[in-house]
């Protein structure tokens, strides 16, 4: 009797199955089941385990090289997967400068393939992120891609042509392969019996996949998907569920909720290039006024964690638990008083000072001026629109009210998401904004790219304009420190610096809550990215009906 | 001027207008603040990635050169590649077009037929209960806010009663099975078509009804009708065979004149019901700032509207010999 | 909206200067007797008062502010209750005050967009009719093209280009695409007026073109313009609501279309009828009221229609 088909709901249709396009989240989800990387993360320890590779990489510090051996594997069309394919993938990325991947491969000088199962990568300089960022690149088949890429190599615009190539039948080595993609309708994937992990025990887990296939159904809105889940037309909805649905789902039979702490950061970004946020004491006062526990309680309804530093607490090894805190545990009145104290000490004056007594804030002040007598300009806090992300929009409103309560003129302004990106990353004209990274890598190299002065440029990730030479040298060192312990120390120091200087005020990290039906399949594996991960799909089994 | 020359003249005009719109759209998109690629940036793209992509896509060349390149490719039939799907725009449009045609034409035709028939009935019972009922009904449905009507229909008929699917055009389980035959698939699409069609139908038929009604009342006062009555012809015959066909002409023009309104409605309906048509694709591409796709969807719609207007004018001229240009 | 087949270029010239005041009084009484006109007017009065009252709730308590009202006890969508007559939305904001604010936005957008479009349309129509020949042909051809294209989609495309949208840009864009309908009628009226003795007299006595246009022709076409304004208001409101529903509205303004977008996108479509129903009903009723008003005014201006009551 064939195994039944898993029905998964998507919120949007994938854009393309071409793995090189700067893909949206939905395309990446489907592609992750097809193209496989050398290493993936263990669900509990979060350490890297060999996936397509068969053992840990061997590092030679003298030659700055990594030696990797791969398993016996085949592509879904039956052809063997060899070291040539791995080398080809790296070469393709470098030759075409493929976005997103190029930054992780540009420092690889050459690649050797001594035999069909061994690859040696030679780097031009030491990179701490090679194992964590480069070796997670999905491997593609030379036989599939060279006929496409070859003719493009000497044309004027090879990269767009490569990215625009419509891939109808991706050839992968993963647990599933594509049967049909009906545009506007659904995607049908079938079990790939040539999957290299089939029947193997990898990382002490016996892998299937035990599913006959997966049917991806499209739903325009969350509520239609949740409805389908309740009715049984879906087994799993591959997107976080908003807190408003939780009660109803918890009371429905055969539905389980999985809550996972993500590797994510939602924060208040500040523009250090101009007043008032160019003054660190002003930033500290604002940080004191932001009541993160209140946000967690009221907005996230407890489903998440407060963020005091850039690295989420769930990332245990890299997270720094000892960073300067601002206003932790204080009441509203205490916060207001502390903030006032900070501002007064810094030389800020009100024309009409705020009045605070033990029962509350009696009146907000008016006409704040800085120590030089210049009036403090009104602050605009940019947020995405309320329907795009109610939490960010609402957080903006809360912060606006907290600032206004002591006389700081602030307005939360929802604008369209693309305008927000443009204003913050391109034109760089703003006071503050609320943004988030929903899927941070578990490797903390992003701390460097968020705050190194080199990235303070148009399109750069250093949106605050933070320029600290001490931080720059620390972060440069961290990128090339190969010893994990040493690197950890550096990253802790970097985090402490950021938490003290406050170019961004980290706010919260919401849990990802996902819902599944329990009457047909069992075996979902929890991970920071959610339950839609390799281990789940390879281990899910139909429920024994007897 | 003969009909043939008139049509040719209008077609030439349409071609000119089409190119004007094309140029205006092109300029608007290129001159918009920010560059298109930076809007498709995902956080993992570095600044140099973006710059390389912009250079390779030719978006940093002077506008004049980009325009000429664009014109050349349009004439060759190449409308560019979607920035987000990466596929040729023409292929995407070709894929979505039949879905829109099914929904749109069926709803407008049904609405026009219903409007003519019920308008005729209403005019015949002028002043009495049936007339008031139909007229008020037409007024109410015609002025309802279309997306809201769609949501209400979904709520009542799909969610509460469960008679129809909530959205989309097909049931995945039926379509993925190779053994499902054409009949089953067609029935499935029809099942999904009911609610969106009902939405468009309800909004439009009221307008046609009101026009038909006033038109009938006018026509019934005409001399030739009085003559027919004097000749002793049966009332029903007068109404249906003499008055109605002439009275229906303004409805025909109205379909053409309000095509813009109908197309707006079509795009909204497709969005609410997730019906994968051109209107919805236009909305999605505009949201995603996918300029090549948005531009081409709009050009297609503009071309359809211009040609449709020509067809309506010609039809009217053909049917009413008093009008000639 | 459906184009009325009655309003053609043959509207008689009803306002010889000497009889203006009497004509207005006469028309008002005809208008008042029309039952549908009365319904339309009544509805309009209700919405006007809603718009005016929209300033009250935030003054009563800051938590009733439609955009930033934070209820200390409620942070999700709840049904009607004594403190929230229509319940709360997904962020705990009061729906009733949002509804009132929406009325204000509807009038603002509707009236401004309509006003600007008839301003453009009247000017263009008068110029076309007065100057004639090539200017006329060019302007009317352009009008034809714009009129034929779907306004919502054009506004949508422009909206995406501007990125950062605010209410006034939306109004301007809507006005920019809605002038053709008015201009045709005004042009026809201008053509009729051009041949009138008093215009010829003015020209002979040496009046400049500007004077003839603005002093003599304009006052005679303006009443017609205002009639057309009622049709423009509805379409402006619907376009704004549709834009907001699709996600292109001004995110910092609360309009009925925006409310519908929130209920749709935040997944409360099936669970919150108290939130889903009111904004849609309001948009539909305000459309109805202007439509009825427009038809009633048509009857007033065209005596052939009187007594027909639709």
In short:
The complex is a heterotrimer of chains A (546), B (325) and C (310). Chain B has 325 residues and is an all-alpha fold. In chain B, 76% of the residues lie in helices and 0% in strands.
Question: Which helices and strands appear, and what pairs or packs with what?
Answer:
The complex is a heterotrimer of chains A (546), B (325) and C (310).
Chain A: E1 5-10, H1 25-32, E2 39-41, E3 48-50, E4 58-60, E5 65-69, E6 73-74, E7 80-81, H2 83-96, H3 102-105, E8 108-115, E9 118-123, H4 130-134, H5 142-149, H6 158-163, E10 176-182, E11 186-191, E12 201-202, E13 205-206, E14 213-218, H7 222-231, E15 236-237, H8 243-250, E16 255-261, E17 265-270, H9 280-289, H10 292-299, E18 304-306, H11 332-345, E19 349-352, E20 355-357, E21 360-363, E22 366-369, E23 379-383, H12 390-405, E24 410-414, H13 417-427, E25 432-437, H14 446-451, H15 469-480, H16 484-501, E26 504-517, E27 521-522, H17 534-539, E28 541-542
Parallel strand pairs in A: 1-14, 1-15, 23-24, 23-25
Antiparallel strand pairs in A: 2-3, 4-5, 5-9, 6-7, 8-9, 10-11, 11-14, 12-13, 16-26, 17-25, 17-26, 18-26, 19-22, 20-21, 27-28
Chain B: H1 3-31, H2 36-39, H3 47-56, H4 63-75, H5 89-124, H6 129-142, H7 146-160, H8 172-176, H9 182-219, H10 223-230, H11 235-247, H12 249-257, H13 259-272, H14 278-287, H15 291-319
Helix pairs in contact in B: 1-15, 5-6, 5-9, 5-13, 5-15, 6-9, 7-9, 7-13, 9-11, 9-12, 9-13, 12-15, 13-14, 14-15
Chain C: H1 20-33, H2 35-53, H3 56-60, H4 95-131, H5 133-148, H6 151-162, H7 167-194, H8 197-204, H9 209-246, H10 256-265, H11 273-301
Helix pairs in contact in C: 1-11, 2-4, 2-11, 4-5, 4-7, 4-9, 4-11, 5-7, 6-7, 7-9, 9-10, 9-11, 10-11
Structure description:
The complex is a heterotrimer of chains A (546), B (325) and C (310). Chain A folds into three domains: 1-34 and 174-254 and 518-546, D-Maltodextrin-Binding Protein, domain 2 (3-Layer(aba) Sandwich), CATH 3.40.190.10; 35-163, Dipeptide-binding Protein, Domain 1 (Dipeptide-binding Protein, domain 1); 265-510, Dipeptide-binding Protein, Domain 3 (Dipeptide-binding Protein, domain 3, Roll). Helix content of chain A is 30%, strand content 23%. In chain A, helix 9 runs antiparallel to helix 11. Chain A starts with a strand and ends with a strand. Chain C is 70% helix and 0% strand. In chain C, helix 2 crosses helix 11, helix 4 (95-131) packs parallel to helix 7 (167-194) and helix 4 packs antiparallel against helix 9 (209-246). Chains B and C meet through helix 1, helix 6, helix 7, helix 9 and helix 12 of B and helix 5, helix 6, helix 9 and helix 11 of C.
């Amino acid at each position: 009797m064939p195994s039944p088909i898993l029905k998964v709901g998507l919120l949007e249709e994938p854009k393309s199955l071409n793995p090189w396009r700067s893909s949206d989240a939905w395309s990446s989800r489907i592609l992750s089941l097809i193209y496989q990387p050398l290493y993936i993360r263990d669900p509990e320890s979060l350490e890297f385990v060999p996936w397509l590779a068969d053992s840990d990489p061997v590092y030679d510090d003298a030659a700055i090289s990594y030696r990797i051996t791969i398993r016996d594997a085949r592509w879904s069309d039956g052809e063997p997967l060899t070291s040539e394919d791995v080398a080809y993938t790296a070469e393709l990325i470098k030759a075409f400068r493929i976005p997103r991947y190029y930054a992780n491969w540009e420092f690889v000088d050459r690649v050797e393939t001594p035999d069909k199962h061994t690859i040696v990568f030679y780097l031009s300089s030491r990179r701490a992120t090679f194992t964590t960022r480069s070796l997670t690149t999905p491997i593609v088949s030379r036989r599939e891609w060279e006929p496409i890429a070859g003719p493009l190599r000497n044309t004027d615009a090879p990269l767009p042509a490569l990215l625009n190539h419509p891939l109808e039948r991706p050839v992968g080595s993963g647990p599933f392969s594509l049967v049909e993609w009906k545009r506007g309708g659904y995607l049908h994937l079938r079990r790939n019996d040539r999957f290299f992990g089939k029947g193997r025990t990898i990382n002490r887990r016996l892998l299937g996949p035990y599913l006959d296939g997966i049917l991806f159904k499209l739903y325009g809105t969350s509520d239609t998907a949740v409805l389908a889940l309740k009715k049984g037309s879906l087994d799993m909805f591959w997107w976080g569920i908003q807190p408003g649905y939780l009660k109803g789902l918890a009371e429905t039979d055969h539905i389980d909720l999985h809550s996972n702490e993500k590797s994510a950061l939602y924060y208040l970004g500040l523009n250090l290039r101009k007043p008032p946020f160019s003054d660190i004491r002003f930033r500290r006062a604002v940080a004191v006024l932001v009541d993160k526990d209140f946000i967690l309680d009221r907005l996230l309804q407890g489903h998440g964690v407060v963020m005091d530093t850039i690295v989420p607490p769930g990332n245990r090894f890299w997270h720094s638990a000892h960073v300067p805190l601002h206003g932790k545990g204080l009441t509203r009145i205490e916060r207001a008083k502390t903030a006032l104290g900070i501002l007064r000490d810094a030389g800020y004056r009100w024309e009409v000072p705020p009045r605070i007594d033990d029962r509350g804030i009696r009146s907000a002040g008016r006409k704040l001026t800085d120590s030089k007598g210049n009036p403090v300009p009104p602050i605009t806090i940019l947020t995405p629109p309320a329907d795009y992300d109610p939490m960010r929009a609402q957080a903006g409103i809360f912060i606006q009210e907290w600032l206004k309560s002591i006389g700081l003129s602030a307005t939360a302004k929802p604008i369209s998401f693309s305008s927000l990106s443009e204003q913050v990353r391109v034109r760089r004209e703003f006071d503050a904004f609320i943004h988030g990274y929903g899927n941070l890598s578990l490797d903390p190299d992003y701390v460097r790219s968020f705050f190194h002065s080199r990235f303070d440029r148009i399109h750069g990730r250093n949106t605050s304009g933070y320029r600290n030479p001490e931080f720059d040298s620390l972060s440069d060192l961290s990128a090339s420190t190969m010893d994990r312990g040493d690197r950890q120390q550096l990253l802790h120091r970097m985090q402490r610096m950021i938490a003290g200087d406050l170019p961004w005020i980290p706010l919260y990290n919401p849990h990802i809550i996902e819902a599944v039906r329990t009457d047909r399949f069992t075996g979902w594996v929890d991970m920071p990215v959610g339950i839609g991960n390799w281990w789940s799909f390879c281990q899910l089994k139909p429920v024994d009906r007897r | 001027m003969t009909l043939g020359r008139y049509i040719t003249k209008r077609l030439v005009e349409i071609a000119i207008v089409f190119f004007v719109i094309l140029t205006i759209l092109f300029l608007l998109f290129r001159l918009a603040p920010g560059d298109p690629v930076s809007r498709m940036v995902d956080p993992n793209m570095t600044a140099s990635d973006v710059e390389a992509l912009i250079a390779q896509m030719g978006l940093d060349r002077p506008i004049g050169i980009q325009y000429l390149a664009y014109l050349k490719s349009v004439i060759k039939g190449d409308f560019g590649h979607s920035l987000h799907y990466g596929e040729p725009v023409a292929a995407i449009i070709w894929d979505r077009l039949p879905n829109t045609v099914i929904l749109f034409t069926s709803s407008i035709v049904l609405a026009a037929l219903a409007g003519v028939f019920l308008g005729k009935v209403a005019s015949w019972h002028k002043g009495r209960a049936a007339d008031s009922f139909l007229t008020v009904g037409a007024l109410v449905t015609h002025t309802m806010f279309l997306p809201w009507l769609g949501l209400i229909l979904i709520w009542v008929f799909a969610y509460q009663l469960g008679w129809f699917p909530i959205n989309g055009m097909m049931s995945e389980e039926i379509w993925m099975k190779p053994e499902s035959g054409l009949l089953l698939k067609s029935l499935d699409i029809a099942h999904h078509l009911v609610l969106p069609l009902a939405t468009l139908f309800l909004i439009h038929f009221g307008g046609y009804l009101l026009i038909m009604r006033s038109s009938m009342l006018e026509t019934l006062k005409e001399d030739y009708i009085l003559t027919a009555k004097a000749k002793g012809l049966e009332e029903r015959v007068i109404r249906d065979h003499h008055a109605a066909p002439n009275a229906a002409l303004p409805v025909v023009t109205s379909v053409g004149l309000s095509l813009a309104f109908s197309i707006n409605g079509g795009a909204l309906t497709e969005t609410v019901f997730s019906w994968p048509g051109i209107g919805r694709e236009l909305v999605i591409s505009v949201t995603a700032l996918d300029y090549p796709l948005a531009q081409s969807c709009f050009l297609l719609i503009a071309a359809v509207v211009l040609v449709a207007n020509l067809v309506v004018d010609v039809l009217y001229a053909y049917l009413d010999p008093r009008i000639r240009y | 909206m459906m184009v009325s087949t009655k309003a053609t270029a043959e509207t008689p010239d009803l306002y010889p200067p000497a009889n203006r005041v009497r004509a207005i009084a006469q028309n008002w009484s005809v208008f008042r007797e029309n039952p549908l006109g009365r319904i339309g007017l009544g509805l309009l009065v209700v919405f006007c008062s809603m718009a005016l009252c929209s300033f009250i709730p935030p003054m009563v308590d800051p938590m009733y502010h439609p955009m930033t009202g934070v209820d200390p006890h409620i942070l999700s969508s709840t049904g009607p209750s004594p403190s929230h007559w229509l319940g709360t939305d997904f962020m705990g904001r009061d729906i009733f005050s949002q509804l009132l604010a929406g009325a204000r936005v509807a009038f603002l957008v509707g009236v401004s967009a309509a006003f600007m479009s008839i301003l453009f349309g009247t000017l263009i129509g008068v110029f076309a009719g007065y100057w004639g020949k090539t200017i006329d042909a060019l302007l009317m051809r352009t009008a034809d093209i714009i009129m034929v294209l779907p306004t919502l989609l054009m506004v949508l495309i422009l909206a995406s280009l501007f990125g950062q949208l605010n209410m006034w840009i939306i109004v301007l864009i809507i006005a920019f695409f809605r002038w053709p309908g008015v201009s045709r009628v005004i042009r026809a009226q201008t053509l009729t007026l051009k041949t009138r003795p008093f215009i010829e007299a003015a020209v002979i006595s040496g009046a400049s073109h500007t004077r003839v246009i603005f002093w003599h022709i304009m006052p005679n076409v303006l009443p017609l313009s205002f009639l057309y304004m009622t049709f423009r208001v509805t379409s402006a409101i619907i376009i704004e609501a549709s834009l907001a529903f699709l996600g292109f509205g001004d995110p910092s303004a609360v309009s009925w279309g925006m409310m519908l977008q929130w209920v749709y996108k935040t997944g409360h479509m099936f669970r919150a009828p108290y939130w889903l129903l009111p904004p849609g009903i309001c948009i539909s009723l305000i459309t109805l009221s202007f439509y009825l008003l427009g038809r009633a005014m048509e009857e007033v201006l065209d005596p052939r229609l009187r007594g027909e009551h639709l």
